[in-house]
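[09:14] KT: can someone run the structure on this one? pasting the chain below
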Amino acid sequence: MMTMIKRWLPMLMLAAVLTGCGYNDFQRLDEASKSAWSEVLNQYQRRADLVPNIVASVKGEANFEQDTLTKVIEARAKATSIQVTPETLNNPEAFNKFQQAQGELSSALSRLMVVSERYPQLQANQAFRDLRVTLEGTENRITVARNRYIQTVQEYNVLARSFPTNLTAKVMGYDPKPNFSVQNEAEISRPPTVDFGAPKK
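[09:31] RB: done, structure tokens below
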């Protein structure tokens, strides 16, 4: 009996130490942040997939501002060219680069929607109107997914910086994760302006 106690006691003590030092919480929050990040990427991809259809609809409008279209196409190309890996979550520089590219695409799409209001025929096009509604819904989904990611990363970072779990973070290499910055958050969370009223003249 004593032999069994001696054999299991170190394992039980180790389990107690790991539980008390936040190890399990780090694992849980790390997985939660990865899951939330996957949903952010999923919604960004959904938006990127909409862009070619939007551009095709707009191209059918005579004399549409070519510069506006070009900026959307270029912004989409830039946003989709950035390779996102699980390491992106632990690399503030790569995360910021990805963030900026998505922000540029948001701005370009916003501009396109505003400019499109000057074209009554385009506004009357049912396919284009459907795409606008889909885009607005996608932007809202992006905001929800991004907010979920922000919350999970905040929990993880508080754990990584609080005593005594910060000691576990240092020993195990759990560095704080980058999050959406306030400046970029304001830019990329702004959904395109959608006005279904009478076109501006």
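[09:33] KT: thanks! The first helix runs from residue 2 to 20.
[09:34] RB: yep, looked fine to me
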